[in-house]
């Protein structure tokens, strides 16, 4: 869906990217992570031609982006940034309708789409459609930003620190929301973040940048397991703990009912299981009955022995 082929970007004498070759397959949620100034935003902005490469080529849907008029390319790609960038004097509905209007959709179709998008990001259209951006919380404004980026149904979504400006609780909700939207829509998403936990939780593919070069890329478990000292330092010394958040608790559960043990949610991860064990001072947690009806549970010993 997106290919960076031998990309270098220089701004005057400064090298922002140096020989980057990467591909993002359709439906992937690819997270770019790296220290400040490592070139994450520059790499993202090449995709919608906000930055042009000094060397190399960027292909989107198999076509060199230089062959596509910039405005047309941008209308075909959703873009969400940290500061949200909503038009302050327009209502939420008009903000969400921006690209469909530019594309000349009929009014009735735009209205229906705005309602559909607000519902997708879990904002009640009756309550929010006529509000102005200043009447929204940071998390709500981010949701509107996502609804706007998805309104014209682009197959690619670029997100540059999309949750950077919201508090940790709203951030957690928005992450869960993004995972749900990604699963429901199958969009190809390229996302920049500083937050290692966010990167590991969201990514189907991780690309780690340092000084304009890719130092590791692949599935999160692969990168966490195989990365060198820099990757470990960047993603946190607690990589083993973070890796637990990638695995559903159900996967290690055994058919050993423990009716008195504290219960986990059906979609809980191994990290949730460990957290519940610590919180409840118990070494076994219960999982709700699977479809077969059999009760299951997970012990601390098994979690430690069988962890990925
Ligand atoms: N328009 C520009 N003009 C000059 N230098 C730039 C420009 N954009 C980026 N740079 C430089 O290129 C390098 C990479 O910047 P970039 O914004 O891609 O990094 P980043 O990894 O996204 O950083 P951060 O996490 O701090 O946002 C930096 O040294 C930055 O100063």
UniProtKB/TrEMBL annotation:
<keyword id="KW-0547">Nucleotide-binding</keyword>
<dbReference type="GO" id="GO:0016887">
    <property type="term" value="F:ATP hydrolysis activity"/>
</dbReference>
<dbReference type="InterPro" id="IPR003593">
    <property type="entry name" value="AAA+_ATPase"/>
</dbReference>
<dbReference type="GO" id="GO:0015697">
    <property type="term" value="P:quaternary ammonium group transport"/>
</dbReference>
<keyword id="KW-0067">ATP-binding</keyword>
<dbReference type="InterPro" id="IPR003439">
    <property type="entry name" value="ABC_transporter-like_ATP-bd"/>
</dbReference>
<dbReference type="GO" id="GO:0005524">
    <property type="term" value="F:ATP binding"/>
</dbReference>
<feature type="domain" description="ABC transporter">
    <location>
        <begin position="2"/>
        <end position="236"/>
    </location>
</feature>
<dbReference type="Pfam" id="PF00005">
    <property type="entry name" value="ABC_tran"/>
</dbReference>
<protein>
    <submittedName>
        <fullName>ABC transporter ATP-binding protein</fullName>
    </submittedName>
</protein>
<dbReference type="InterPro" id="IPR017871">
    <property type="entry name" value="ABC_transporter-like_CS"/>
</dbReference>
<dbReference type="InterPro" id="IPR027417">
    <property type="entry name" value="P-loop_NTPase"/>
</dbReference>
<comment type="similarity">
    <text>Belongs to the ABC transporter superfamily.</text>
</comment>
<keyword id="KW-0813">Transport</keyword>
């Amino acid at each position: 869906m997106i290919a960076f082929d031998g990309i270098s970007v220089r701004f005057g004498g400064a090298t922002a990217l140096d020989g980057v070759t990467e591909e993002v397959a359709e439906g992937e949620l690819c997270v770019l992570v790296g220290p400040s100034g490592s070139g994450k935003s520059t790499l993202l902005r090449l995709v919608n031609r906000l930055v042009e490469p000094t060397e190399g080529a960027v292909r989107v849907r198999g076509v060199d982006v230089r062959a596509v008029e910039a405005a047309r390319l941008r209308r075909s790609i959703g873009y969400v940034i940290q500061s949200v960038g909503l038009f302050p004097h327009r209502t939420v509905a008009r903000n969400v309708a921006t690209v469909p209007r530019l594309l000349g959709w009929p009014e009735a179709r735009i209205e229906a789409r705005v309602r559909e998008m607000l519902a997708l990001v879990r904002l009640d259209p009756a309550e929010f459609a006529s509000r102005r951006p200043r009447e929204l919380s940071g998390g709500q404004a981010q949701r509107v930003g996502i609804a706007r980026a998805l309104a014209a149904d682009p197959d690619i979504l670029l997100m540059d620190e999309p949750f950077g400006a919201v508090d940790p609780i709203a951030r957690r909700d928005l992450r869960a929301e993004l995972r749900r939207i990604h699963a429901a829509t199958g969009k190809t998403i390229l996302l920049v973040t500083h937050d290692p936990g966010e990167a590991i939780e969201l990514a189907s593919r991780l690309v780690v940048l340092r000084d304009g070069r890719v130092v590791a890329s692949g599935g999160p478990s692969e990168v966490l397991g195989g990365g060198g000292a820099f990757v470990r330092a960047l993603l946190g010394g607690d990589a083993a703990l973070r890796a637990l958040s990638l695995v559903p608790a159900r996967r290690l559960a055994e058919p050993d009912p423990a009716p008195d043990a504290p219960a986990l949610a059906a979609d809980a991860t191994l990290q949730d299981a460990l957290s519940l064990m610590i919180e409840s001072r118990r070494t076994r947690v219960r999982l709700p009955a699977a479809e077969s009806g059999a009760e299951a549970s997970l012990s601390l010993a098994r979690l430690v022995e069988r962890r990925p």
